[in-house]
Write a structure and sequence with these properties.
about 35% strand, about 180 residues, alpha+beta, 8-stranded mixed beta sheet, Aminopeptidase, 8 strands
């Protein structure tokens, strides 16, 4: 029996997803079309799908968006700044610092690639995410809320876009060491 002390997850590994991970990700987190699309972007060098694993079980993900932002406001005010997108931790694994660990891994990846800032959008009603990101040093930008959208992958293979209002949080990353 694995014990969890102080709400911390047991040993876990965080790494970029591979094509072979798709069945496990879809089985554990659903959204097969979403993960397949993010893997295609990863292959094209447009981002990195970071996955958290406990043993052979995927327990969390975040997509590190490296291409220009879709939203005009982000391209204008944060040109070239990567985005964290779709942080998710499976039910039963939340509140064990896995989300924090995944975010730190994404930040290390970005520092290693020479980025100086990272940004993300959170829905206006997502207080839990806002609290997590603020605890990790993310601050709301001065340009107010913006309308973003998210893709809904349909059962027939099609896609639909749904609008949502978000607040934008930004964090300055530490400089890479020698």
């Amino acid at each position: 029996m694995t014990r969890h002390y102080c709400g911390v997850a047991p040993d876990h590994q965080i790494r970029p997803a591979t094509d072979g991970d798709l069945p496990a990700l879809a089985g554990a987190l659903g959204q097969e079309a979403f993960f397949a699309e993010r893997l295609r972007r990863q292959h094209a060098g447009l981002g990195v799908l970071l996955t958290a694993w406990v043993g052979a079980q995927p327990v969390g993900v975040v997509y590190v968006w490296l291409e220009p932002a879709e939203e005009r406001e982000l391209r204008e005010h944060l040109p070239g700044v990567p985005l964290l997108n779709h942080l998710e931790v499976r039910d039963g694994w939340r509140n064990r610092r896995l989300g924090t660990s995944i975010i730190h891994a994404a930040e290390r990846l970005l520092v290693g690639r020479g980025f100086k800032q990272v940004a993300l959008g959170i829905r206006l009603d997502n207080r839990h995410a806002a609290r997590l990101y603020r605890r990790l040093g993310y601050e709301e930008w001065e340009h107010g809320e913006i309308e973003t959208s998210y893709v809904v992958f349909l059962a027939d293979g099609g896609e639909d876009r749904e609008p949502e209002m978000c607040r934008i949080l930004v964090k300055d990353l530490p400089l890479a060491g020698p």
